[in-house]
Structure formats: structure tokens, C-alpha cells
Design a protein that fits this description.
By secondary structure, the chain is mainly beta. It is 7% helix and 51% strand. The protein is built from 1 helix and 4 strands; from the N terminus they run H-E-E-E-E. The chain has a 4-stranded antiparallel sheet, with no helix packed on it.
């Protein structure tokens, strides 16, 4: 089995954010709204467990991304 962790370079992340992206127009301008809808945890074999807090029902694109780094202040 191919190790997805190496291909995706996610070794440094304990968890990832699942975000829903909804594209819309406002006053003639294209915009997008990004909402964190869950968390993804990577397994040893490179697969993922996904825990959703919300399920998109409006045709949102779902992405898995590293959580933004927090300031240590």
C-alpha cells in the first residue's frame, strides 16, 4: 500500500481542519466563505479518520488543510 502521508507531506500534523468552502456573488463580485466543519486525523497507514461537526448541504467544496498556526503570545 502506498503511504499517503509521504505523498501529502502531512507528517508534521497531528490533525487537520476540514473546511467547507461556499462560493457566492456579492454586489457583482465573486467571493467565498470558508467554515471549519470538522477535524481529520491521519492513521499510520496514511488513511484518514474524518470527524464532522457540520455537514455541508449547499454544494460546498470540502477541503482538508493544516490548522493555521497560532501565535505563542
Amino acid at each position: 500500500m502506498n503511504n499517503n502521508a509521504e505523498n501529502l507531506k502531512l507528517n508534521d500534523h497531528d490533525r487537520l481542519a476540514i473546511v467547507g468552502v461556499v462560493n457566492f456573488e456579492h454586489e457583482g463580485e465573486s467571493k467565498s466563505r470558508w467554515t471549519t466543519i470538522g477535524t481529520a486525523f491521519q492513521n499510520k497507514d496514511g488513511s484518514f479518520n474524518l470527524r464532522f461537526e457540520y455537514m455541508p448541504v449547499t454544494g460546498a467544496t470540502v477541503q482538508i488543510r493544516p490548522f493555521p498556526k497560532r501565535d505563542s503570545n
